Amino acid sequence: SSGINAEWPLRPGFGPTCKIVVKKATNLKNVLKFGTIDPYAEVTFENYTKKTKTQSDTKNPEWNEELVFPRANTDSVKVQVKIFHEESIGKDKLLAYGTGNISGYTKSDWHDIEIKLIDSKQRATEGIVSLGVGGGGGKDPDAEEEEGEEEGEEEEEDVVMEEEGGDGTAASGGKRKRKKKKKKGKPGMSA
User: Using one digit for the tens of pLDDT, what is the confidence trace for 84-98?
Assistant: First the structure.
């Protein structure tokens, strides 16, 4: 079950993760009769929900907060962001929300995306939330290559060439020669 700031078993160096940086939101609508909004973002990815800190008195909050999620499904493509006004008394008010497609971004370098927001009555707004998305962390148990190696990367190795009557060692008169060979790796994998 999902919950705000849900706890999950993430041990350092174990399991792939998705990092989502909630950068900012712009042009949020002030739904209050008096005062200004105090927005925070709630992000949901693969049934886990986390939230940012609240920014006071602004329709253009800047959070720049990194949220790290476990990534069980490597084909995950959706992230949902809800922007709420934090009430001092009572239930927080939903200001706007949106869903973004992050297909392929959870396993790669950083990508910046913007998600257009709609209000609680599903009407288009001028609001936009900006995110940074990238994969990270953990060892993929299905990976065949060592960290930092890519397909086609060359490796040098010493090869001993035997002379007639030699046993293959340099001490017995064998000659050393450097040879390059291609390493095997999964296609499309990059460091």
Answer: 999 999 999 999 999
Measure CA of the first residue to CA of the last residue in the chain; give whole Å.
33
Token digits for 73? 């499904």
Q: Are strands 124-136 and 17-26 parallel, antiparallel or unpaired?
A: antiparallel
In the 3-class helix/strand/coil scheme, how is the chain assigned residue by residue? CCCECCCCCCCCCECCEEEEEEEEEECCCCCCCCCCCCEEEEEEECCEEEECCCCCCCCCCEEEEEEEEECCCCCCCEEEEEEEECCCCCCCEEEEEEEEECCCHHHCCCEEEEEEEECCCCCEEEEEEEEEEEEECCECCCCCCCCCCCCCCEEEEEEEECCCCCCCCHHHCCEEEEEEEECCCCCCCCC
Per-residue pLDDT reduced to its tens digit, 15-52: 788 899 999 999 999 989 889 999 999 999 988 999 99
pTM confidence score: 0.65
The closest alpha carbon to 162, from 148, 146, 173, belongs to: 173
All residues at 6 or more sequence positions from 155 whose CB lies less than 8 Å from its CB, including other chains = 180, 181, 183
